[in-house]
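so my prof wants the structure for this chain in the tokens format not the other one, which i didnt know existed until like an hour ago. anyway here's the sequence
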Amino acid sequence: MARELIVEADGGSRGNPGVAGAGAVVVDSTTGEVLAEVGRYLGHASNNVAEYTGLISGVTRALAIDPDAELTVRMDSKLVVEQMSGRWKIKHPAMAELAAEARRVLTGTPVRFEWVPRAQNARADRVANEAMDARASFDR
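here's what i got, hopefully its the right format
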């Protein structure tokens, strides 16, 4: 049976667009242990670009930990969750490009997307804010 990893992903922009960052936390679903935190400083970008970057960074890191894992992606971005689940159309060209990149990374990986309230996404939000505050990307 494949290991399940949870990816908590978020992105933010101070001013939309503005100074932006993305964050992701990879968690072992069985133990609850945080396996990795990835922050990306994006410079000047929109909130939606930051959200997608958080998703891509998180799933990339999760699959580096275990390429055979099943993933549950939790985000407070209804837009990204609905677009990646195929329920909402993607009209903006930049968003379509990011969604295509996320799909490429996820090719062959069982994945489930879940929307969570913002309060339940605090760890990924913290990591995104750390990247914005430091104006630096990191992987720990």
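also thought this was worth mentioning. The chain has a mean pLDDT of 97.
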